[in-house]
Amino acid sequence: MRSVAAALLVALWLGAALLTVAVVTPGAFAVLPTRAMAGDMVGRVLPVVFAGAVIVPVLVLFIAPAVRRKALAVASSASAVLASVVALGVVNPRIAALRVIAVVPVDQLAPADPRRVMFGLLHALSVGLLGVSMLALTALLVVLVRAAVPGAQAPRDAR
User: Fold this and answer.
1) Helix-helix angle 114-148:2-19, to 10 degrees
2) CA dist., res. 130 & res. 20, Å (int)
């Protein structure tokens, strides 16, 4: 039962992350009058998603202690937490600072402007870190579902 609760928690986070990536972000850029406003809005949503990728795996390992014995569960949890902590503590603050020192919206800077180039690199890194968190928590979900569903575990010795 604990594995089911933990799996539900991970699935809810994955759903929120997918909604952010597939609906909220493209929608903001499609309907808001400027890219800067859309970036501001998405910039308010992403920290919550990243924070969830720190909190959820920790809760899962607390809720379902049997999962702690599974190397994939521990490794995927650690990967999600690490990627999200880097995004929250390093990448996203640098993006915010860069947007402030750019004075004008980043998309109005010349393509070769070092601030715009750095913004592009940091943005790509943030997207990559979210992808790592999503893949890691997908792996954790697979471990949890296999633990929760009777017969989902492959037999260890089929001889």
Assistant:
1) 150
2) 11
What three-state secondary structure class fits 105? Answer: coil
Distances (CA, A) of 10 to 40, 84, 148, 153: 27, 15, 13, 19
The total number of residues shown for the chain amounts to 159
Q: Is 103 left (phi over 0), alpha (psi -120 to 50) or beta?
A: left
Whose structure tokens read 């790592």?
132
- Read off the pLDDT of residues 17-64 as tens digits, 9 standing for 90 and up: 999 999 999 999 999 999 999 999 999 999 999 999 999 999 999 999
What does pTM read for this prediction? 0.89
Domain boundaries, the chain: 2-148
